[in-house]
Amino acid sequence: ILNRTNNIFELVSVEPVLNDKPSEKSKRDVLLSDEYEVQEEKNLRLKGQMIYMESWKMIMYLGTPVMPDLNSLISSGLYINDLSMHDFSRDLMLAGTQQSVELKLALDQEQQKSKKLEDSMRKLDDEMRRTDELLYQMIPKQVADRLRTGENPIDTCEMFDSVSILFSDVVTFTEICSRITPMEVVSMLNAMYSIFDTLTERNRVYKVS
């Protein structure tokens, strides 16, 4: 040790440091593997310098606790004042804690931005779906899809040798409306045209609303 006076020595306590009374779990004679690992993490680590005291004929160890954060420091029963004031132990502890808080805050902000982006993308998908529905009501679906891919509008024009045009009407619609409530009229028309739309799509018929 005297030949390595410029080296930093790190000591680890054999027994775990317990801040409070041992729990029932620690009193068991047989410990599970994961419980043993948890206790190993509570061992106190000291890092410092070995100094030989000539008058005492002894070696004095000047060490400070090595803690990753304030939570580990408090769980070990120690405080900031227990760290050495003659080195950067306190500054490193506080700086590490501050950096951890800043990183957590930045992570929370990124998660909020990600959530807002997901909401915006979902709203965009809803608007695109509504736009598609409106577009399909104006022009045939296959023509709209071809225009969306950038095809020339002139090339989307098609010719048919013969076509059939169907005009539909609800017979005695005025009389029916006079006998039922407005909501019943809406429900009736919605049910009727939903069936009509299903039939037109099944038979590949273009409907002009």
TrEMBL record:
Keywords attached to this entry: cGMP biosynthesis, Coiled coil, Lyase, Nucleotide-binding
Assigned GO CC terms: guanylate cyclase complex, soluble
GO molecular function, one term: nitric oxide binding
Alphabetical list of Gene3D superfamilies matching this protein: 6.10.250.780, Haem NO binding associated domain, Nucleotide cyclase
Documented EC number(s): 4.6.1.2
GO biological process: nitric oxide-cGMP-mediated signaling; response to oxygen levels
Domain Guanylate cyclase intervals: 164-209
Ubl conjugation among keywords: no
Coiled-coil annotated residue ranges, if any: 100-134
Catalytic EC class: lyase
Protein name: guanylate cyclase
Gene source species: Ignelater luminosus (Cucubano)
